[in-house]
């Protein structure tokens, strides 16, 4: 059966159907055998190999070990491991060094911590000492104030005693023509501390108000509304002002009616003391209707006076009000150079009443030398001026007959010719302008003469007044010899020689001063009214109102690093300019009002040419107006007025002492969109002695860059924004200025410290 079965297996199964089963069984046997063989190889062979190797390493001869662990030196013998060994050794050495450094730093940190603790203790001790010093200083100052209060009694303002409204006990002068301040003015209404209050009547409340020139009245009312001295409280007023002219001819009231209306004023007080009657003249025609009116003790301000009417030191000669409601066009005013113009001098006028007789009965100089003096010097003036014109030594223009109808004038007065524009065109071509006073010596001033003076000063023609008896406008407070030539009529034959002998420097100085006087006292209605008040205030010795400070709108800015000191700027040689360390800002003492009446309060440089570059501070004797603070030109100007010897040419530190033992100054620097130049100029001020602060007047509408770093010079830098671009912004009284001494410079001024001092 076995054989049979074996045979069947070989044949593939029983019969035809057993062959597949046999094949499947054979394949299973082979897979099982193969799996068993692989298991034996993978499991038992490594075990046998491991056993074999371990038995070899256990041999007594250590040198015969092949696979056992070896020492470090033996491994280093392997070539590819030697580099790793060297790296390990270097790293070990560095770690040892770092550990040593760490220990050293720890010891240093411990020492520094000890020092910090010691410094903290010393700071605390210093704070305690500083606090004690502050307490000592505070106690000392308190004791000093107590001693000063004990030794210096308080001085309060005097009590103002006002007279009654109807006070009639004021002594009367023998005649109204003899009125002066001492006998016709009530000083009790004007104490020094009163502030000079002025009450202005409303002309429309009285019948004569309807007769006033509308332009004159409107200009006067506009000026009154803005004046600092005008008050609405008549009970405390020092001066009462009423406007009575210029009047319109057809509706002019009769003298008796006007006199009654003046005497019926509510504060006239029977005689009109402390009243001022103003009669302004807008045209060249002369109105002197007040001549026939009894004005009592009232002062009169007008442009025409007879000697029987004018009271020196009491009445006021005013300039004509040409520009009533409009500002003069300064662009049309000719420049001050060239000094000499086409004509040496010019004159146009006509004297209707005596011109014909003057031309027909001209006397020779020989007859006058023999003792026959002329009845009217105008005859000699006509002959002499015509002779100068005919000689053609110089270009002159004189006309004694008007081409058109002359303006109305008083007897013996030279009438104006032509229109105002034509006269100005001629004066623009003239170096000098002749002004011939009226032949009637009793007429001390006329509206025609003041109009000629106004026009000459306006266009820069130097006035030459023939007639020393004339009373020019505001003559008791204005030095007319600095802007005009006043020559007696008998010297008419020497006028040509005199005018040719004046140097160009003197001509320019007189023209500049004339322009200054015209701008300050004549040009506008505000100036005319303010000048009239300033004359009265000066006569009764009341100080002017303080100038209103200009509010400074600060521009924010950032301060950068501390500025260095330029060795070229700080090299002062052997000069001792002041303390090396910068002092903290110290403001000058403030006084609301200065009531002293000494010459020390007036500063004027007599050696320089007169003109708008002069400095006129407000003083009781100086009738300076607010507009006089406007100066021309630019550059550097220094004005120490705090005391000492300021302005004497000495160094700033040498001027200290006496009333001003301690003082500083402020730098006012004008700039316009030059940031780099400005920064350099500010840095040069670092370390400047006695410097209080720097006020930078930013004249540009464009603000400085936000990222601009301003230098730190040790004192405050105030950047002020202006409303408009003007060189005169350097002269505005900024409220940030706290010192009396001011150094005004441009942003490109390169001055050493010794030059500044």
Description:
The longest helix is centred in the N-terminal third of the chain and has 70 residues, at 82-151. The strands form five sheets. A six-stranded mixed beta sheet has the order 13-19-17-16-20-15, with helices on one face. A five-stranded parallel beta sheet has the order 1-2-3-4-6, covered by helices on one side. It has a five-stranded parallel beta sheet with strand order 8-7-9-11-12, sandwiched between helices. Among the domains are: 176-317, no CATH class; 343-353 and 376-523, Glycogen Phosphorylase B (Rossmann fold); 548-589 and 662-756, Alpha-Beta Complex (Spore Coat Polysaccharide Biosynthesis Protein SpsA, Chain A), CATH 3.90.550.10; 624-660, no CATH class. It contains 19 helices and 20 strands. Helices cover 34% and strands 12% of the residues. By secondary structure, it is of the alpha/beta class. Residues 665-756 form the Glycosyl transferase domain. Residues 81-150 form a coiled coil. The chain crosses the membrane at residues 31-53. InterPro entries: Exostosin, Exostosin_GT47, GT64_dom, Nucleotide-diphossugar_trans.
